[in-house]
Structures are given as C-alpha cells and as structure tokens.
Amino acid sequence: MSDNDKIKVTIIPTGTMHADLTWLLIDPSRMATQAQPSKQRDWVPVPTHVVYLEHPNGQKLMWDAGVPRDWEDRWGPTGLDQFFPVDTVPEEEWLDSRLKQLKLEPSDIDYLVLSHLHMDHAANAKFWQRAGTKILVDEREKEGAFSFDGYNKGAHIKSDYDGLELDTVRGDTELLPGVTLLSTPGHTWGTMSLQVDLADSGTMIFASDALYRKESYGPPAIGAGIVYDSVAWLESAEKIRGIQERTNAQVIYGHDPEQITQLRTGPGNYYT
C-alpha cells in the first residue's frame, strides 16, 4: 500500500504564546505556601498547532485555525493579550504562510473542524468564510459561543466566528473512515478531540485543550486555571485515557512545549 492509499496527517506549529503556568496546570507543588509566600511563578511557552489531514478518498481536513497576526488588536479589548501574548511567531508559522507552504487555498479544504471556539483555536476561521468549506463544531460549543452579548466571554471572541456557517456534531462522530471527532467537554462547553487511526503510525489522539500538557494527563490528571466544568473536564481526560489504553494511541496535547519538539512537524513531515 502506497502513502497515497493511506490517511496522511501533518502537524503544523502555528506560533507560540507565553503565559503563567497556572492557567494550564493547577499544580500544588508550584504554589506559594506560608513557608514560601513568594514562590516564583512560572512564565512558560504555550505553543499552538493545527493539523492537516489528507484522506485517501480525496478529502482534506484542517483541525483548528491557529492564532491571528493581529492578536494585539483583537485580544486587547479582552485584556487577555497581557496574559497570553503571542510573542514567538516566526513569519513562516502564521497560518496564511503555512497554507502557502502546503500549496493550499482555503477552498481546497473540505472540512475545517474547530476543537472549540477560543481565540487561539478559531481566530483564523474566517479564512474559510467564503471558501465553500464545511466548518464543524460541537453543538454545545456553538450554543455557548453565541449565548452572550458583547465583544467576548473569556477567551471566546464573538467576531472570530460570527457570520460563519457553523455546522454541528453531537457526541462522538466518525467524520471519515478512520477519522473520529470525540466529545471531550469541560475546558469549554463543547471541546472536541480528534482520533485518527493511521495505517503505519497507529492511532493518534489530538486532545486540543482537553489536555494542555503531559502533566495535565498524569495520571493522575491535573486540572487547570481555565476550565469551564471541572467535573466534565476530568471525565473527558479519563475518556481519552480509556481510548488510549484500548488502542495504544499516541496522545498529542494541545500546548505542550516539550512534546511539540519531539514530533514530526511542518509541511512534508507527515504521519501515515
């Protein structure tokens, strides 16, 4: 079987934010105590990525849409530009540059699947506004993302996605043979993960923000400062663990600065 007859997955780094680690990991060992009231906080890299998938049936899928070039203007009204500055992005890593490297136009993508609608995952979704691409989100995510008035609700910035035709899925959904969207809420109303069953590399689970980092996964799973529903988040972490144990999957975390350096990434460096 040639590579053209297999699912091909390319992990594409799309720039790095920085943030206080507590947003991503509520780790008691790093917290101040009476004995150490001034314990140093951790200002850590928070890399972002998208996933480009080519299916042997000819369809193309993009998972998430990265951070925006104009993050200071778009995030400034929320105040989150101070907490999550996008301060490490080489020119070649912005999503529009990545599409050129892949020799793709937005209209070449059949499915844009947004794991959730936070500002670092959906910011470039409007690249696909008139592309004829089917844009998919979890139905609870869509409902929540339009449930508020004003510019933003936390990291949901309505202008990132209003005006888009957002189709929805409910529960675990096999989108294409070997490609399954997993319902993993908790981080937001309807966060999804992506399971891909590859011929050579086995199963890969792209956890998005259901699991920020390796430490998040544990065991035991360790919660975060940004969690909409902590009980649902823990259930989702254990759901991923159950699938991982059954399939011997490799779990790809949403923002792990060490793991991203250990993966094959960038155009041409795909998994099959």
TrEMBL record:
Keyword Hydrolase: yes
SUPFAM superfamilies linked to this entry: Metallo-hydrolase/oxidoreductase (SSF56281)
Keywords from the UniProt entry: Hydrolase, Metal-binding, Zinc
Zinc among keywords: yes
Cited Pfam families: Lactamase_B
Cofactor(s) for this UniProt protein: Zn(2+)
Matches recorded under InterPro entries: MBL_superfamily_lactonases, Metallo-B-lactamas, RibonucZ/Hydroxyglut_hydro
Signal peptide: none
UniProt xrefs under CDD domains: AHL_lactonase_MBL-fold (cd07729)
Limits of the Metallo-beta-lactamase domain: 47-255
PANTHER family in the cross-refs: 102 KBASES UNSTABLE REGION: FROM 1 TO 119443, QUORUM-QUENCHING LACTONASE YTNP-RELATED-RELATED
Family the entry assigns: Belongs to the metallo-beta-lactamase superfamily.
Protein name: N-acyl homoserine lactonase family protein
Protein species of origin: Saccharopolyspora ipomoeae
UniProt lineage: Bacteria, Bacillati, Actinomycetota, Actinomycetes, Pseudonocardiales
